[in-house]
Amino acid sequence: MESKHEEIKTRIIACFKNKLTPIESPSNELVFGLKPHLLREVATELKENKELLFEQLTDLCGIDYLTYGIDEWTTKSATNSGFSRGVTRQPVILDDADSFDGERFAVIYNLLSLKLNIRIRLRMFTGEDNPPIAPSVSDIWSSANWLERETFDLYGIIFDGHPDLRRILTDYGFVGHPFRKDFPISGNVEIHYDQEKEKIIYKPVSIEPRTLVPRVIRNDNRYSEDIKDNNDG
Fold first, then answer.
1. Which of 40, 63, 85, 231 could form a disulfide with 106 if both were Cys (CB 3.0 to 4.6 A apart)?
2. Considering the entire predicted model, what is its pTM?
């Protein structure tokens, strides 16, 4: 890690003591973990402290760690029957569970200090609550307003204190949160326009789930050994 990064890391740790926990980064970025109840206090200090001045929230997003570290596909070599490498999926946690694993959902905050010309990242796990809840920072960084709405829409994370928390990317009647790892790839509903009723109609999805990889190998006579021999004279 560069000496400048080390200096800022030391400064931040000294300022927040046990409120922020450094996280190892393979790309030498400054990443810190924190608890939800400390978020607003830490965010305000990072923005207003004259020695830091992280005045810009450049991005905010959610993460679902449900299947983190679990291989869905075996990709080291092809099978004898073709290109199919599908393996059995691991069991997943459904949206109607009473609670989640405490480290399933996380919210990421990417901050920029123009004064220091440096970026840091905060990672906060939402805990076991269902639905997952995080404090809103939209009154601290105005850019968080739409970003928190996106994260709510795609992951179902509720931002407590947000002035207008509603969907922003999906339709008003959309079912579920499409970036969750247990959300079906084909979705839950499909829509079409009904000419007689003159409105959009929702109905259960009719797409049959299947593995979208080739399973059949067909012989091609262009590569027949007999034809090759004849062409060779």
1. 63
2. 0.77
Assigned token pair, 11? 């400064």
Quick one: which of 129, 161, 124 has its CA closest to 145? 161
Report the mean per-residue pLDDT for the chain: 83
Instruction: Read off the CATH number of the domain in which 60 is found.
Output: 3.30.460.80
Contact 33, 19 (CB under 8 A): no
Backbone phi, then psi, for 49, in 5-degree steps?
A: -65, 125
Per the structure, how many domains does the chain have?
Answer: 1
How distant is the alpha carbon of residue 147 from its chain centre? 13
Cα dist. 31→13, 34, 203 in Å?
Answer: 11, 10, 44
Determine contact, residues 61/151, Cβ cutoff 8 Å. Answer: yes
